[in-house]
Amino acid sequence: MDSYKLLTSIIFFLWTICIISAQNFQCNSSDTCHCTTVQTHYEYLCPPEEVDVVLKVEPQYLVDVQCITDKSNWIDPKLPQLNLGYVEAFKFRNCPIPDSVSTFMDNLGVYKVKSLKADYMKYFKHFKASFLSGLSYLESLTLSNNEIEIIDDDVFMGSSNLTEIDLGSNSIRLTPNLFKYTEKLTLIDLSMNNLDSIPDTLFHNLNNLRVLFLWGSNFTTINGSIFRDLTSLRTLELSHCHIQHLPYDAFYSLKNLTAINLGMNEFETLPANTFAKSTLLETIKMENNPHLQSLPDYLFVNLKLLKTVGLKRCKLNFLPENLFAECTSLQNVSLGHNELKTIPENIFKDLSKLENLDLSDNDIQNLPEKVFHSLENLKRLNLANNKLTTIVSKLFFGLLSLEIINLSNNQLVSIQRYSFQRLTILKEIDLSHNYLVLKENFTTVSPFNDNLQLEKVDLSHNNITRISDDWIISKIHLREIDFSHNQIDNINFRYLITVSPRLQIDLSKNRIKVVNFTYSEKLARSQGNLNSYPADAPNTEVLLGENPVICDCHIFDFVRYLRRDIDPMVPSLVTVKADSLTCQSPDYLKGILVKDLELKMLTCELQQLENRKCPQNCSCIVRPWDKALIINCINASLTHVPELSSETSSIFNHTEIYLANNNITSGPTVYMGYENITVLDLSSNSIDGFQWVPPKLESLILENNNLSFLNFEVLDMLNRSMLKHIYLGRNPWDCNCETANFSQFLLTHLPQQQIDVKNIKCKQSRELLVQLDFKELCPNYRLLAVSVSVSVALMALLVAVLTIVYYRYELEIKVWLYAHNILLWWITEEEIDKDMQYDAFISYSHQDENFVTNDLVPNLEKGPQRYDLCIHIRDWIAGEFIPTQIVNSVEKSRRTIVILSPSFLSSCWGKMEFSTAHAKSVKDGRRRVIVIVYGDVDLEKDLNDELKAYIKTNTYVKWGDPWFWDKLRYALPHSKIKMTRKSQNIMINMNDKLDLLNNIPSTPNSGSTPPALDMEPPLLLKDHPLNFRSNEILTPPAEAGLKPLLMTSTK
């Protein structure tokens, strides 16, 4: 302990002296040199104006002289006058050689230099004795990379303390007594001098020499006597010397040799006893001997300390089984890049400590089953670039410590199931560039099921078609697995959720056509919710580039993932790198980046998803984006609309049918399966009559047909439909009195811009129908009006006479009419509605329940005239479909009382109940709706179009009115209500524009239709199968003088 303290004190004292000395150094500039401080050293630039020499000084440690120009010489006093004292090392570079180095050092005040290095010196061909005179303290001399040819025999006479001499990369001609004054030498470097021989006495008496570099010489053999006195030599470097032959006793005197390099020579063989006397050898390197085809028996026998043998890049085609006999300490063997076809079964039997074995780049076709059984400590095995075709089950059974194995670039077709079972600590395996399918075991797990410590697996460039289950559920340490360049044709999200915290799966350049994320959200949610999911939880990174993806409905959810239109838990589990992934098919999407796809572009043939027939000569595709079935019958030579299946489907809920360019003469009828049609394209046919509008239709295209007239019933259905776009242009429309209803229909819908009015023209005049007023449509209107007036007067007289007769014989007339089923509408309402269960159904918002149950119901059910009421909280059947119950309640009630309140206006069910009651009222031709205004309701601003139209044409009751109960009871059913039939098609005066009044309260469809859908061609690609419309009619001709009426919208 005391000695340790003493040593520490001495080191601290010397360090302090060095620091003080360095601090005392003065960096002074002069006319000849400019001094600056550069980080850890001082730098002199001499002369300052045009620098020839740079002098770097680290006091106590180093003086470095670098000559910049050829003008540098030591005659002119260019260097500063310094007093540096003791310096450890002195360096020259690119300078003229001084006659005496010691004189040069004296000028700088330097002494006791231990290390001298002079490289790339100018004109240094003759190494004279004067160069080192006075350098008695010198221990290390480096004169490499000069042009030295001649060395004086007594050059080292005054440098007997030298322990290291480096004369490499010169052109030296050696003399026998060159080192006779340097008996302390431990290292000599004579490499790259192109020596063709070595004097026998060159190394005489160098008993302390430990390292000798002779590589890069040019002699074909070696005389063993040159090493006679090198009894302490540890390292001998003889590579790249063109040696062809070695005497058997060349190294006999090198009994302490531990490392020898004989690589890059021209051996054809070696003597059997080459290393017999060098029993302390630890490293033998003989790589790159292109003529070495065989090795003698027992070449390395009894080298019990041998740890490394390098025999790469030779021509070895055979190995003796006893080559490594008794090499019990051997740890590294490199036999790669030879021509071996097999390995003797017992060649490694004594190598229990072997850790690294390289047999790569040979011609090995098979291996004995027990060849590796004794290698219990082997950690790395390289068998890459051979011709192995199979791995037998017990080949690796003894490799219990194996961590890395490389079997790439073989011809492996199969791997037996238990081949890797005992490699329980295996971390890396490379099986790339083979022909593996990994199906030979008829199981869902891979041959690596038991290798739970695997971190990196390379299976690229094989014929694998699927990912085994064990990669997902058991490899918790796996970080990287490469499946690129295989035959995998689909990938499912469930194979991407792994137990490994951070795993990269490379699936690029496979044959993946489908990336199935169908159940990704469900699987992701089963892992937990996003808020509770830890940041270091498992996340799989997947590389999917350069795969022939089919861009159809099967990748719908994958595209949702790429667009981040999916549950955030999915990307938190799996990160897909698919920036360069493009569509391979269909043709209209080929080349488009998958990440740029719009969801509505993805479709599938119906037959791929469901066993359902498509109409003859038509094609049927499904679009998951809006769950639509698209039927394309364009140019199908049809003469009538095809019947459609009415069966329900789980993959679509509505249908679009395109029947353009056929010979169809009429539209569909009620029982042809068109109830769920939302788009009906009958353009460019021969249709001259259209009698029925499908109830869910949103787009009707009838342009370019033979339509000349639409009757009132069709117009009424169009008014009540969900249509958002109607195309009726390019038809031969009649423009006469009968067209007045149609003209009024067009004018009514003009603000909604739903109809292509700019293309609806009269067949005779080619004028726009909407620009004609009533007088132009009906020029004989005055005559018609007089005729109507006379007819009305006569009719009034007749009615008066009949009225008198009726009151005189009322009972007899009713009995006779009832008996003959004539004019039953004349019978009292009580008689017509006698089978209805309720007097009134009350439609209200649940927020108005107190008003209904506490005020309204008690007064009506228990008042002087009692009514049977239907309210949903009491009379509806639990569990039945709500819309069905609404219809049933309206149908079974003589009246529907609507509690019109702010909360009612925000209720979708309330609006549906009103629409149902209103429709029944119109259908029955009698007033069945009673509106009670309850609360603060602005009848001008708060109501939608349907309610507003009804309020304007019908009376209502307001809560708080003094006559509230009398008015309400009068509106409710009682015995003698006179029924009046609504008149139709009554025309009244229109000034300069046609104004048609219809007593039936119309219901503007803008307030009752669902959100607008995009009525542009469903896809935005020119060749997409859903782009059924070949021409657009959205822009009116210039001469029409109209602004565009139909605008596209986006869902």
UniProtKB/TrEMBL annotation:
GO terms for molecular function: signaling receptor activity. It is found in: Membrane. Keywords: Glycoprotein, Leucine-rich repeat, Membrane, Receptor, Repeat, Signal, Transmembrane, Transmembrane helix. Residues 1-22 form the signal peptide. GO terms for cellular component: plasma membrane. It comes from the Eukaryota. InterPro entries: Cys-rich_flank_reg_C, Leu-rich_rpt, Leu-rich_rpt_typical-subtyp, LRR_5, LRR_dom_sf, LRRNT, TIR_dom, Toll_tir_struct_dom_sf. GO terms for biological process: signal transduction. It is a single-pass type I membrane protein. SUPFAM superfamilies: L domain-like, RNI-like, Toll/Interleukin receptor TIR domain. This is TIR domain-containing protein. It comes from Photinus pyralis. The lineage of its organism: Eukaryota, Metazoa, Ecdysozoa, Arthropoda, Hexapoda.
